[in-house]
Write a structure and sequence with these properties.
It is a single chain. By secondary structure, this protein is α/β, with parallel strands linked by helices. The protein folds into two domains: 11-87 and 142-151, no CATH class; 101-133, no CATH class. The chain has helices at residues 19-27, 69-79, 105-108, 114-119, 142-151; strands spanning 11-15, 32-35, 46-50, 61-63, 101-103, 123-125, 132-133. Strand 1 (11-15), helix 1 (19-27) and strand 2 form a beta-alpha-beta unit. The structure holds zinc ion. Zinc ion (ZN) binds next to loops.
Length: 158
């Protein structure tokens, strides 16, 4: 399936029923907007992720055929030819999809638990909602889950 994504990262429009998929696409760093209903036409450069069978085959539409989250993620990455780089993992706010910004340790004081302040290697903050993130704040095993996921993709590095 060709989506004409050469060079750029896609803008992903994700139906609300695929909310967990959207969260994981954000964890991987992809610009993912939740939508209530599909647009009449997918805007240029965007891809609509849907489970609505009747939309299959339309330009800019990717019909998600799987039920399990891992399978859905693999399908989206594989069909769109995406290879999320570790540098882009955890680069977005999971709540509002904005790119997060680095936060100094001193500025994180009072915003995160004391133990986290002392032990986390770095922090980021969402400029929109103020949420603070650090390695581990996405779930203890998020990075391992990503690595396991990517290892199953065709063309993945050994
Ligand atoms: Zn936010």
């Amino acid at each position: 399936m060709s989506q004409g994504l050469a060079g750029g990262q896609p803008l992903l429009l994700c139906e609300r029923m695929l909310g967990r998929l959207a969260t994981w696409l954000r964890i991987l760093g992809y610009d993912t907007t939740l939508i209530e209903r599909p647009p009449a036409m997918t805007p240029p450069g965007a891809v609509l992720l849907t489970r609505r069978q009747r939309l299959a085959g339309r330009p800019g539409v990717l019909l998600v055929v799987h039920d399990r989250l891992e399978d859905q993620l693999r399908q989206v990455l594989s069909d769109l030819g995406l290879r999320p780089h570790p540098d882009q993992w955890f680069s977005r706010c999971l709540a509002c999809n904005r790119a997060v910004e680095p936060l100094e340790r001193s500025a994180a004081l009072g915003l995160v638990p004391d133990h986290t302040l002392a032990t986390a290697p770095c922090f980021t903050r969402c400029p929109a909602c103020g949420k603070v993130f650090w390695p581990g704040s996405h779930g203890q095993r998020a990075a391992q889950r990503i690595e396991a996921l990517l290892a199953g993709l065709p063309g993945a590095a050994p």
